[in-house]
């Protein structure tokens, strides 16, 4: 969610109905914001008592730096689903407004709308904002389908839409859409995943390429940076008999429960004693460990535009977290220029395979 992206325009647009007087914020409290994001518009409108929900670690960290009340820190809530926590909150708090910044994944957006309708007060209003280029009309139609007719306006190349006060959701749809949060079996049941995660319903082709060429002599302490639902870490456990521990680092909190399930199953299948840890955090800021090997399929965008600096930050983190003589295996899109960063961070770098638009790289001898 980078500065200057369409997503920031959605944050600005979200508050337009309040600026024009079509809606009125409570003097304090009474507001829950789903997929909240820090920005000028939030700073200008936020009032005491607001609750902000965010499961993506970089965005949650940005909110926390402003001392906002942020919920859904998966490292504190273990594997409890977001929806379950929000529904539990409904018994102790009511919200006059639930503000929603939907994602680009339709089923996850439907889940957010269902969660919003589950916790809004009996006279409350759900408000959402979506960039026109990211399915605004479809999202508006979905909220209308769930909650009845909605009001809307357009601003900042976004569409803002909101429910009638006290609108009752369609009970059948509400149940179906809340169920979208549940982990799902994929890859013929070998893995568990969750809607909204990167490549949630399949094995990502780049990760599969990396796994196919991983050597079987990786040993000792291993980390997977940007682990997602844990595919690469599971492949390491399966292929590398001398691995003694593996840590999975992932920024999206909704991936943690599937990752824990998958890595536990992989260890059980191996029949070996392997310590595991699944950590919610922003890898670009470093990791708390020292490793003999690291594997990674780094993200290269958080919106529509490429952000190769994300991959470069993963490389720097890997080099700093490796023990002397450690090895780093990564996969990346062929067009992303990571070679200069790799050369600056490692004494030895080689391209293992270049195929199907991706390159697998092994880097050794991290520089001090």
Please supply descriptive tags for the structure shown above.
368 residues; alpha/beta; 7-stranded mixed β-sheet; 2 domains; Rossmann fold; 35% helix; 14 helices; disordered N terminus
Describe the structure.
With 368 residues, the protein is α/β, with parallel strands linked by helices. The protein has two domains: 6-181, Vaccinia Virus protein VP39 (Rossmann fold, 3-Layer(aba) Sandwich); 184-366, Vaccinia Virus protein VP39 (Rossmann fold), CATH 3.40.50.150. Helix content is 35%, strand content 28%. It contains 14 helices and 16 strands. It has helices at residues 6-14, 16-19, 40-45, 57-65, 74-77, 82-89, 106-119, 136-147, 171-178, 205-213, 231-239, 256-270, 308-321, 339-345; strands at residues 31-34, 51-53, 70-71, 95-100, 120-131, 150-155, 158-163, 184-186, 191-193, 219-225, 242-250, 275-280, 291-296, 322-333, 346-355, 358-366. The strands form three sheets. It has a seven-stranded mixed β-sheet with strand order 3-2-1-4-5-7-6. β8 (184-186) and β9 (191-193) form a beta hairpin. α6 (82-89) packs parallel to α7, α7 packs parallel to α8 (136-147) and α11 packs parallel to α12. The longest helix has 15 residues, at 256-270. The two termini are 32 Å apart. Residues 1-5 and 73-84 have low confidence and may be disordered.
């Amino acid at each position: 969610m980078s500065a200057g992206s369409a997503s920031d325009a959605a944050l600005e647009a979200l508050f337009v109905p309040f600026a024009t007087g079509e809606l009125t914020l409570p003097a304090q409290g009474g507001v829950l914001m789903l997929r909240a994001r820090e920005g000028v518009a939030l700073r200008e409108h936020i009032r005491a008592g607001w609750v902000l929900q965010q499961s993506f670690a970089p965005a949650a960290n940005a909110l926390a730096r402003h001392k906002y009340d942020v919920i859904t820190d998966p490292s504190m809530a273990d594997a409890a689903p977001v929806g379950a926590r929000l529904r539990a909150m409904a018994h102790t708090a009511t919200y006059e407004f639930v503000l929603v910044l939907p994602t680009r994944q339709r089923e996850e957006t439907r889940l957010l709308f269902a969660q919003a309708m589950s916790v809004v007060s009996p006279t409350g209003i759900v408000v959402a904002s979506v960039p026109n280029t990211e399915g605004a009309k479809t999202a508006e139609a979905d909220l209308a389908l769930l909650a009845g007719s909605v009001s809307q306006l357009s601003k900042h190349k976004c569409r803002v839409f909101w429910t009638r006060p006290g609108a009752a959701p369609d009970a059948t749809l509400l149940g179906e859409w809340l169920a979208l949060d549940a982990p799902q079996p994929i890859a013929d049941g070998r893995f568990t995943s969750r809607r909204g995660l990167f490549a949630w319903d399949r094995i990502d082709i780049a990760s599969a390429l990396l796994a196919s060429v991983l050597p079987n002599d990786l040993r000792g302490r291993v980390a997977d940076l940007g682990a997602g639902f844990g595919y690469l870490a599971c492949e390491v456990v399966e292929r590398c008999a001398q691995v003694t521990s593996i840590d999975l680092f992932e920024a999206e909190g909704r991936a943690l429960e599937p990752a824990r399930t998958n890595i536990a199953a992989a260890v059980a299948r191996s029949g070996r004693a392997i310590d595991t840890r699944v950590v919610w955090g922003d890898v670009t800021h470093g990791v708390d460990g020292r490793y003999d090997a690291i594997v990674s399929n780094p993200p290269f965008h958080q919106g529509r535009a490429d952000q190769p600096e994300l991959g470069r930050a993963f490389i720097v983190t890997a080099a700093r977290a490796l023990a002397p003589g450690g090895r780093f295996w990564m996969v990346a899109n062929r067009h992303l220029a990571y070679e200069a960063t790799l050369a600056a961070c490692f004494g030895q770098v080689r391209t293992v395979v270049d195929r199907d638009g991706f390159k697998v790289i092994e880097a050794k001898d991290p520089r001090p």
